[in-house]
Amino acid sequence: MRVFVVNQDKKPLNTCHPAKARKLLSLGRAAVWRHYPFTIILKGKERPIVTTEHRIKIDPGSKTTGLAILNGNRVVFAANLIHHGDTIRKTISERRAVRRNRRHRQTRYRKCRFNRSQPKGWLAPSLMSRVNNILSWVKRLVAICPIRAISQELVRFDTQKLQNPEISGVEYQQGELWGYEVKEYLLEKWGRQCVYCGATDTQLEVEHIHPRSKGGSNRLSNLTIACRDCNLNKSNSKIKNFLSGKPDLLQRILKIAKVPLKDAAAVNATRWELYRQLQSLELPVEVGTGGRTKYNRTRLGLPKTHYWDAASVGESTPKNLRAAKVKPLTIKAMGRGNRQICTTNKHGFPIRHRTRCKTFYGFRTGDMVRAILPQGKFAGTHIGRLTVRKSGVFEMNTPKGKITPVRHKYCQLIQRNDGYMYSFVVDVQ
What we know:
Blueprint: E1 3-6, E2 12-16, H1 18-26, E3 30-34, E4 39-42, E5 54-59, E6 64-71, E7 74-82, H2 85-104, H3 125-144, E8 147-155, H4 176-189, E9 204-208, E10 223-227, H5 228-234, H6 239-242, H7 247-257, H8 267-279, E11 285-289, H9 290-300, H10 306-311, E12 329-333, E13 342-344, E14 350-353, E15 359-360, E16 363-364, E17 368-373, E18 380-387, E19 393-398, E20 401-407, E21 411-415, E22 420-424
Parallel strand pairs: 1-4, 5-8, 7-12, 8-11
Antiparallel strand pairs: 1-2, 3-4, 5-6, 6-7, 9-10, 12-22, 13-14, 15-16, 17-18, 17-21, 18-19, 19-20
């Protein structure tokens, strides 16, 4: 993984090798500016340095978004951005339940409010948070890296190549890339698992529900996804005969086969909003489809991960990709806290009040710290996100789980709370 560099005026420069960054830090010519992602700032006036063009690539997902920065054919940064839309939706539902309960109690009359209209293009907060998370990180990376272009996966599959999903015959002969678009459509429709046995950790193949040898067509309503073993076992048997002992599964498959994938309104809604927001950054935005992403990733021989999908987005993907020794960063959105002064139980009754003070012994909830515990069950060095208490006995959330108790005298600040939790993923490359 490369190290980000900014000059004395906080202008982004080319990334450097970690060995060079260590040398600059040891000689006192640079200082650590941020730990996540690791960035150094140069001291003093440096001679003019020519920066090369970098491109950031984005693979938006419902729960996890892949990010990658390419300098030519080299991957200089990769990350998984985990969203917390489910948490937002749960919190809003709980707040709605408490508000509804309050209205039904014997309280004073409050006149109805009529300012509840939604503006054009409105998205639910759980969806809008995903757009804001991605946009926020694009801006952060642009501030520390000379990014000159953006690539975004706009849709899972090209709806233009699938103008009428029920057309069959020679109109489907659209080349090698078209096959990836169709398979991506089917994988999304059938949940990326074998419809017969539910297998997910094996290669899936396109399978005809009604065999072609018995009059079946190539229509998408007659195609599904199955593992190789189930595909061979079914062979050219009719699905009613093959699943004669599983009537519930048969009914489910026949029902889903007739239902089109409702991705245009639900899944692609945030992608289009993200696309509009990225255009406001005044950088050229390249768009690609999920089929092309999968085609590029398969051609490059990369494993199926969010950050490798991001590196494979769009036509700008190079023929050869230098992806060795990449150490992806996991970024989990946690929020910046709330203004709730009274903690309630699951029934909505108050159980404790929060203090107005948010800083204890120099630490705040959400700070990334390094704790060196000398003894106890969790003895050792731990890095994670802190939860502070007035007593000075804190808790720490790490990728391996919760660490408690953590006393303040054993904590060393790494980075102040910015609404995210960080950890590293060991890549197999």
